[in-house]
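Protein in question kept in full:
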Amino acid sequence: MTYAIQAPEQISTTINLPASKSISNRALIVHAYAGGPMPENLSDCDDTEVVIRAITHRPTVVDIHAAGTAMRFLTAYLASQPESHDITGTERMMQRPIGLLVDALRHLGADIQYIGAEGYPPLHIDGHQLDGGQIEIDGGVSSQFISALLMAAPMMRQGLEMRLRGDIISRPYIDLTLCVMRDYGAQADWTRHDTITVQPRHYQQRQYLIENDWSAASYWYEIMALMGDGPHEIHLRGLTDGSKQGDSAVRYIFSMLGVKTSFESNKPNVPTTVTLSPCITLAPKMTFDFVNQPDLAQTFVVTCTLLGIPFHFTGLSTLRIKETDRIEALKREMLKLGFVLRDANDSELIWDGERTTPMDNPIINTYNDHRMAMAFAPAAIRIPGLRIDNPEVVSKSYPQFWRHLRHAGFTITDMP
């Protein structure tokens, strides 16, 4: 399936954003340990659905499909449960390394075997209570590895003391995990700048409400930036001022690209409506380190190039091991639109303004990556009729994305 997209001349819309996938998946794992009522306002995305199925139905073979978060979180969870399981996923998932997490879990007492290639899923797990203790991990690995270990830690006999070596990437996601854990009664916190200590203490049952998703909000910020000056207004429901979500930084970054953010209410931890409107500020050049917000990189690459703003983005090392190699995917697809991007040091993307002849009637390949589809869709504002291949991949994190675009006035047509 391919969608052709036409943008409206003016935007004035209200969007009820999806629940945060990041918070939903963390709250579900912690809830699985704690018991009690299911968290409220759970995400309806694919990644969250596979976690729900795994913890409620407890199948012998757990198929997480393309959900990388679920693979990491459930591996640690299943390793600490008194049952045996196999965990598997898509062909791409079999190419995403998990050896560092498996090694760490084995060090803490887990019994995990590789079914196929060493260091990669699928896995066979014989679960039992883990010993815990002290462990040292490279701070540059995926924060999902670290979060998976942390959420299992209160159930370990000795708890956990985790030291992170070197630079720590995606620290806001680690802090988000600790926040959810503490909300459920865990004693878990940074005890040094590079060390997290979790006491052996069972989680407590409670009611838990999930905030809506700042990552999903980023595509509406992109739309506002690309619409430019005019009587445009976008209202986004269910976001919180002072959110623990790392991608809430989108409000500050987009202020450099002509988008103003206003909160209806600033009460702590109370979801409210956020209004986006144009402002005149545009940075002549953009430099940003996405080490703490890697999922925003695609959004800003597309936005900056279409606004003609050169950029140098760093902190992108984890993009190589996402649903696709996002650095290469961005270079290929932006070239179709006439923009020549360079990469450097396996963790940087640069556009110095170099252009080439754009392809006639380009079709954007999404590479089975939801964020490729959602980051490129707003480009239709500047490239009328832009086509997106395999658009259904948005179900991984934002199933209502296309319906919400139509609600906002976009015309989306199925192409043969």
